Prior knowledge:
Blueprint: E1 2-15, E2 18-31, E3 35-39, H1 46-53, E4 61-66, E5 69-70, H2 76-82, E6 84-87, H3 99-109, H4 118-128, H5 133-136, H6 145-158, E7 163-167, H7 175-190, E8 195-199, H8 203-208, E9 211-216, E10 219-222
Parallel strand pairs: 3-8, 3-9, 6-7, 7-8
Antiparallel strand pairs: 1-2, 1-4, 4-5, 9-10
Amino acid sequence: MSILTVRNLSHYYPDGDYRRYVLKDINFDFEKGKFYTILGQSGSGKTTFLSLLAAMDSVQEGAIEYEGKSFNKYDLNTIRRNLIGMVFQGYNLIPYMTAVENVMVAMTITENEIPDDKQDIAYNLLDYLGITKTKADRLVTKLSGGEQQRVAIARALATNVEVILADEPTGNVDEDTETEIISIFKKLAHDHNKCVIVVTHSPLIAAEADVVLTLRKGNFILDE
Length: 224
């Protein structure tokens, strides 16, 4: 069953008196339990598409639905807090906080039901993603790039969302770390029934995905 549905989605940027469309009439259903990658050349609209799924931009034409309910029926902040987790290439962690504090902050802003023992949950999440308690208590600026990306993934999971989006999540890490992060995304999809959607240039990630979509001329080409 689809958790995210995209219907006739288009997005444009004003160009003088014209509209320059970067996305045009996209239709697609994203399901839980699957790991998706979205490929495309620079400027193809990948980041724009992900921003719309993450409710960081408003839908101009067409619709995005979460479990059948249009994004237009929600406050965009509600979608970001409660429905969809986002992992950024640049991590976007709070630099003056420890790893565990970064994860706990996410729990304080969601309206989803979170158990009272938030600190224990944060430590357990980080441990599951390969961050020991010793490292969890360090400032995130004292962690490697790969470790910071794991913290960012833990933060996205901490709000108990069903959809995880990631924008070039391995762009700042070495190949060994990239392989480990790919493994994490696959586990989230296959073992924890999350819908994981990753925008990437990486052939390594695409090779491991269940579904590979390529954005070309504003629409998806499904790789067989």
